[in-house]
Write a structure and sequence with these properties.
This protein has 249 residues and is mainly alpha-helical. It is built from ten helices and two strands, in the order αααββααααααα. Strands 1-2 form a two-stranded antiparallel ribbon. Helix 2 packs across helix 3. The chain is elongated.
Length: 249
């Protein structure tokens, strides 16, 4: 079953609905393990981020549980119609930000004034704080500050909404929580490059720096997923070795 050609609804929601149907039909009984992420990716013809968000959505509904090093296991079955309130996924939000905020940064580079640049420098300095909440707030001020430099109220509203969706969407919050922080050093370096391009009033470089930053955020989320998959594979291999050792005695 390939879902990449579907345009109605969000792909990960369709995957959630398909797996719920399989659980209800007994294809995946309670206590059984769902197929590996790689197999689900091939079955549905979608990307790893889409499968990952579907698994987290199922986990948030209490239908499955992700066990580190072992896989995803079915906890409950349901015959009720699946809820449509799955919210927006982190990968969707960041991809939209990458596309839009790159152009926003390019426009800001032609319009930004010295006072606005000073505010961005202050926000960048505040990102170095050890207080995670304060650093996140500074990150938010930095991105919204760039939007404000365009002088376009619609752009400002859109960028603000993109940022705040991360916190309003339970699914996005859960994905980002599992991924953890991008890292203070990387965050400062990447935002510093964006600021340098804005100070130089260089639209092309500002666009590239913003897109590179948000692409790295996506890469970070993918890396976390890959690490979990490797840990599960190692655990499965260790179990097989122990079983073989017992039979060889």
């Amino acid at each position: 079953m390939t879902m990449s050609g579907n345009t109605g609804g969000k792909l990960y929601r369709k995957i959630v609905q398909a797996i719920i149907a399989d659980i209800s039909a007994g294809v995946f009984p309670i206590g059984s393990r769902l197929p590996p992420e790689r197999d689900l990716t091939e079955r549905f013809g979608v990307s790893r981020p889409t499968i990952r968000e579907a698994m987290i959505a199922l986990e948030m509904q209490g239908l499955v549980q992700s066990r580190k090093g072992s896989g995803v296991f079915v906890l409950a079955s349901t015959t009720d119609e699946a809820s449509e309130e799955y919210d927006l996924g982190a990968f969707e939000i960041i991809e939209a930000r990458r596309l839009v905020e790159g152009e926003v940064a390019a426009v800001a580079a032609t319009e930004i004034d010295d006072a606005q640049l000073a505010q961005l420098r202050e926000a960048l300095n505040d990102m170095a704080q050890e207080d995670v909440a304060a650093a996140e707030d500074a990150d938010r001020r930095f991105h919204i500050g760039i939007a404000e430099a365009t002088g376009n109220a619609v752009i400002i509203s859109a960028v603000t909404d993109f940022w705040d969706l991360r916190f309003r969407s339970p699914l996005a919050r859960e994905v980002l929580r599992k991924a953890g922080s991008l890292g203070t050093v990387e965050r400062l370096e990447e935002h510093g490059r964006i600021l340098t391009a804005l100070e130089a009033r260089n639209p092309a470089e500002a666009r590239l720096a913003m897109r590179d930053h948000l692409s790295r955020v996506i890469d970070h989320l993918l890396h976390v997923n890959e690490t979990e998959a490797v840990e599960r594979a190692r655990a499965e291999t260790a179990q097989r070795r122990r079983a073989f050792a017992r039979r060889a005695v």
